[in-house]
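Try it yourself: sequence plus zinc ion, in.
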Amino acid sequence: MIFKPRTEPKELIILKTLRNRMDLSMAYQQNYISLKKGFEGELLFDLLLENIECECLVLNDLLLKVNNQTFQIDSLIMLKDAVYLLEIKNYSGNYSYKTDKIFLKDQAEITNPLIQLYRTESLLRQLFLKFQFKTSIHPLVIFINPEFTLYQAPHGVPFIFPSQLNGFIKKLHSSESEVPEDHIKTAERLLTLHIDENPYQQLPPYHYHQLRKGMYCACCQSFAISVQGKKCTCTSCGNKESVESAVVRNVKEFKLLFPNEKVTTSKIYEWCQIIDSRRRILRILKKNFKSTDILRRMHFE
Ligand SMILES: [Zn+2]
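Structure, out:
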């Protein structure tokens, strides 16, 4: 049972939007690429768990704090007798392992995911102790990408390689199905402690005036959109979307980028650029968002 589903990280959504609307420095481009790759890897792992038969509890993407230290969990699988703490890595290419260090073949050292995994394990154990929840924690790094090879990996390190994934899933399938009540309570407590706002997100400074205005295609991100009647058509890839859904998407994007700005008809008219009338924008806002009328200047939540 998926107790907490995975959602696209806010940092990734904002970077995706910003790279369409402004020039990102190389460092932020790289951050975007690595977040995107990581998220794609996590989704691949979720697909493997989709048809799992045992009644385990799966909690994805947790951000927790214990004893003033914050830690993040990619996936936590709670079974009757054990809890699997999973760090999912979507690395591709050839790597080698030398005395607890991992190197990209013939190149620089990368951070060994075990360092993070053991820190997370220790903090999770401290949290479970606070809950008085007794279980054994099995920390594992899951290498999800079939094009990943790690040479000279020693025996006994808690790594699951792509060729071992099916075996791991089978093992989960065959585990005892019933989940005790205290596991459900613990999962609920973890959910209430989950922190929504990631304090480590790395976003460039940006201002409204420096961002490109207009609506871009939801499929190919091209700004070449033409509006005819109730439909928007992308002249680059041919994707069609209703004007209403495109405007709603853009309002959500505006709210995400500028959470402290009030959403007004004029601002969205300017933000979207290609919608011919303010009345049309107003109609869509009224239909899809809660309006608040303050001093006759209507804005939307
Ligand atoms: Zn397109």
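One thing you can check immediately is this: The first helix runs from residue 10 to 21.
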